[in-house]
Amino acid sequence: MLDGATLDVADTAANQAAFGRAKSGRGEGTGAFPQVRLVGLVEGGTHATIAAAMGPYATGEQTLAGELLVGVGQGGGVGMLLLADRLFVGAQLWRQAAATGAALLWRAKTGTTAPKLPVDRVLSDGSWLSRRYAASDRRRRHPTHGAGDRVHRGRPGPADQHRPLPAGDHDLGPHRRARR
User: Domain extents for the chain?
Assistant: First the structure.
């Protein structure tokens, strides 16, 4: 499971310079302590940390997740199911995670800030095939490009604010699907 967090560190000038602080709406406008941002690859059953990447508070979780996946390496995730929360969804990071060989199951936002997940083909279980593109990909909308997804709708009701995006056994071509 990919997960991110921030941790308070000792309030020293060196930590302030190295890690920075969160913004605050109170007092001087900064948080009480410098903070380090951490993204970990965590085993779901035991919660054991397998690998981690950390950086200054200003470094985004997707950036740290990318660094972490470089450490896993191509084929290093074979036999794993990699879960990730809605804030990790992005075409470039998806491709990088799929290259590890792990099966992917990631949640995606719904609503106005959701990634665009157009319906390429509806499957018999009600899920659909879609694809995402990196913002820098000039070949967007071309049917042979983009990160392939199978989109499943979540449970009806308030919990249905996110959509899981599994990389499954549907055929999206060898360069766009997680291999087991």
Answer: 1-72, 80-180
